[in-house]
Every structure is written in structure tokens, then in C-alpha cells.
Amino acid sequence: MAVVGIIPAGGSGERLGADRPKAFVVCAGRPLIEWSLEALGSLCDRVVIAAPPGYDEGPDRVRGAESRSASVRNAVEAVDAGEADIFVVHDAARPLVTRDLVQRCLDAIEPGIDGAIAAIPMTDTVKEVAPDGRVLKTLDRSTLWAVQTPQVFRADILRRALERDAAALAAATDDAWLVDDAGGVITVVESYPENLKVTRESDLRIAEALLAH
Ligand code: CTP
Ligand code: MG
After folding, report:
1. What pLDDT was estimated at residue 213?
2. N or C: which end of the chain has fewer CB within 10 A?
3. Helix, strand, coil shares, percent, the chain, to 5
4. Ligand 1 atom 13 nearest Cα
């Protein structure tokens, strides 16, 4: 089966506040995106990166878009129909992904399963809170998982799921949401908390410390 990697790296990294887009900030000696490229590279026939203006030249690079999902769509559209059976979508912002985690997501695509997503069982208690700060209710933690990337999908259903208008793409915080909306069956693959998303400066420091080991 042909596997193509998609790395959304088209964000500006506003919350990190660095002098360049987040995916290209140096972390433990290399640009953040290189860690993800290394983990995906050996398992994928090709990896397409959606990058910000100024970083989008060259082979297998496309221009990112106004939302994360729109960036994913730009990258998916750069891949010919029939060239991919499976897409592995992984955020440039998660440098602690491992080849093993990607492989376990790929292995989870069985008959009847359209998507497999890395996730961890919630360890914090989660509450629903009103805009004024009043606690409305406590959710049943035993059924809640915090979702990460990689997210692996059958190529045809991901393509179909991304055929949405800009507002729907902007509202989706992950691709599995869109695939679920399109009728796909998604399963979770247990990940590890170290696979954190670099969002703020403190995350960059934690990632740097973990990658140094
Ligand atoms: N991303 C993208 N295109 C966008 C927005 C985000 O490809 N229009 C990518 C980011 O580059 C990142 C991943 O999606 O690899 C997750 O997004 P996030 O962590 O929110 O990164 P940024 O949007 O860059 O950060 P911020 O929200 O702080 O600006
Ligand atoms: Mg963002």
C-alpha cells in the first residue's frame, strides 16, 4: 500500500512568538519540522509539507492556507489520485513523534476502519464551564481521550472529508473530526504524553530537554 505523509507546517506560531514560523524554529539542534520528517520519512513513499510563504519553494512543498485543515487540503491536492492509498497527517509542531507510533497507527487501519489517531487517556478531570466561569458539569473522564497527531486515514475518505468550505475547515481542530463527519470510522491508538504539541516557549524548552535524551 502506498503511504504518503502530510505535514501541516503552514502556521505562523503566534503563541510561540519566535522570529520565524514555528516549524522552522531550531529545537535541539535542528528545525522543528526535521524531527517529524525523520519519523515519517522512513515509512512513507513521499512526504508533502504545507509551508508558510517564504518556505514553500522546492520539491514536495506547497503553500499553507488560512486554516490548518485548508493547509492539509493543499498538501493532499498535490498528490495524484492513485498515488496514495493511505495518508499519514502529522503536525510539524509535534517533534517527539516516533516511527513506532506512526507504524502502530498504520497497523490499526484494518478492514472496516478508515482512520487511526494517536491519543492519550485523560489524566486531568475535565469540566464544562460557562462563559462566566461557572462550572456546569464534570465529564466522565473514563471515556475521554486527548487527541494528538499522527492521524492516519484511507486516502479516498480523507480527500472526501476535506471537500468542505473554508468555514468548516477552519472550525475543525483536527482531521479526524472531518473524516468522522464524512461518515468514516475512526479508532484511537494509545500514544504517550511526551508527544506534546509545541505551542508556547515553555513547550519548546520541554521538547528540547526530551529530544536531548
Ligand atoms: N498549521 C498549518 N496551517 C495553518 C495553521 C496551522 O499548516 N493555517 C499547522 C502548524 O504549522 C502546526 C499545526 O498546524 O504544525 C498545528 O497548529 P498550531 O500548533 O496552532 O500552530 P500555529 O498555528 O503555527 O501556532 P499559533 O496558533 O500559535 O499561531
Ligand atoms: Mg494555530
Report:
1. 82
2. C
3. 30, 25, 45
4. 91
- pLDDT tens by residue, 49-62: 999 999 999 999 99
Task: Count other C-beta atoms under 10 Å from residue 16's C-beta.
Answer: 19
Residue 115 and residue 184: Cα distance in Å, rounded?
7
Taking the CA of residue 50 as reference, the ligand 1 atom at the shortest distance is 7
Question: What is the reported pTM?
Answer: 0.97
Residues with CB under 6 A from ligand 1: 8-15, 22-23, 50, 64-68, 71, 91-93, 197, 199
Ligand 1 atom closest to residue 15's alpha carbon, by position in its atom list = 28
Residues (pLDDT < 50) of the chain are none
Q: Which three cell numbers stand for residue 82?
A: 492513485
- For the stretch 136-163, pLDDT in tens is 999 999 999 999 999 999 999 999 999 9
Q: Which three cell numbers stand for residue 174?
A: 483536527
